[in-house]
Design brief:
The protein contains no helices and 10 strands. The chain is globular and about 35 Å long. About 0% of the residues lie in helices and about 50% in strands.
Length: about 110
């Protein structure tokens, strides 16, 4: 299984970013997928989950209304649209299944 995140970067508060996660080695359309993040010196925090068919989405309270999770099963890709970014969103963002994790993509809001 390989999960490869991309799309991170350095942005100013209030700006937007879209993260992508390309999956291989799994039947992507059969897996619920999630985003998690880890800020410096803090524990890993769950951010959002999307069901295998995309019909259900779930968000942490800290990102609800600002972040949108989506997926394209034809492309084996999941996305996280992040709007109105805040300094506290600064973290390494991971794409994950129930047991596999990517290497992460850094998001810095400053």
């Amino acid at each position: 299984v390989q999960l490869v995140e991309s799309g991170g970067g350095l942005v100013q508060p209030g700006e937007s970013l879209r993260l992508s996660c390309l999956a291989s080695g799994i039947t992507f359309s059969r897996h619920d997928m999630s985003w998690a993040r880890q800020a410096p010196g803090k524990e890993v925090e769950w951010v959002s989950t999307i069901s295998s068919d995309g019909s259900n989405t779930y968000y942490a309270e800290s990102v609800k209304g600002r972040f949108t999770i989506s997926r394209d099963n034809a492309k084996n890709t999941m996305y996280l649209q992040m709007n109105s970014l805040k300094s506290e969103d600064t973290a390494l963002y991971y794409c994950c299944t129930f047991k596999d994790w990517g290497q992460g993509t850094q998001v810095t809001v400053s």
